[in-house]
Design a protein that fits this description.
single chain, alpha/beta, 6 helices
């Protein structure tokens, strides 16, 4: 009886192995009906129904992307606002065409573009995500520049900094003695708290301004020690 059971189990085992082998061979040899490359590939579908409908997106050159961005009403409006802002800084004597300017957390680079259009020749914009050719990638809390290489540092995004004291410290470090740091914050912020972040600078002035349609306060600090 035991021999008969063992023989039956052996036959079942052999049959299972044979069926599995045949199934694997069929799966290996069978070509799927879908996802076969076509001689004339389909145009890119915005909402493909399956992975077989997918296709490579057209790579748009950065120059073309920038032309689209720089021609939008929102972009031009912000450029105009930053230009008016910097014209006042020029009238105060803090900004000249030869001034070396650093724009920290410059976003898409509207402030950089405004300065360049005004004739400021040496403008550097940095942000966590780059936007070439106006803005390079860099951590505002650890700027990749030597000490005192800029005449003016500007930011309109101090409030968004993860570590405001380190953010300000890096601005001060990269600006030469006698240069200025210009910070714009939302109107109503505690100015004494913001000014206290500047350990190497002297307070020059604070003024309520309108920038990119928002009520802001402009703070100007002059570097007094390295």
């Amino acid at each position: 009886m035991d021999r008969q059971i063992q023989a039956l189990l052996n036959r079942v085992s052999c049959a299972s192995v044979t069926i599995a082998t045949i199934t694997l061979l069929l799966l290996f040899l069978q070509t799927p009906d879908t996802c076969v490359p076509e001689a004339n590939p389909k145009p890119h579908l915005r909402f493909p129904k399956s992975s077989c409908d997918s296709s490579h997106r057209e790579l748009i050159p950065i120059e073309k992307k920038n032309r689209r961005l720089w021609s939008t009403k929102d972009w031009l409006k912000k450029i105009s606002s930053f230009t008016s802002f910097f014209i006042e800084l020029r009238a105060l004597g803090h900004l000249k065409n030869k001034t070396k300017v650093l724009c920290v957390s410059a976003g898409a680079g509207q402030e950089v573009r405004a300065l360049l259009d005004m004739g400021v020749a040496d403008v550097t914009g940095v942000e966590l995500v780059d936007s070439p050719p106006l803005v390079s990638r860099a951590d505002p809390h650890n700027l990749p520049f030597f000490d005192g290489v800029f005449d003016l540092a500007f930011t309109a995004h101090l409030a968004e900094a993860l570590f405001p004291s380190q953010f300000v410290s890096e601005m001060e470090r990269t600006v030469r003695i006698g240069g200025v740091c210009v910070v714009v914050v939302e109107e109503g912020e505690d100015l004494r708290e913001i000014i206290s972040l500047f350990r190497k600078s002297q307070f020059i002035s604070a003024k309520n301004v309108t920038l990119i349609g928002l009520k802001m306060t402009r703070i100007i600090m002059r570097i007094r020690t390295a």
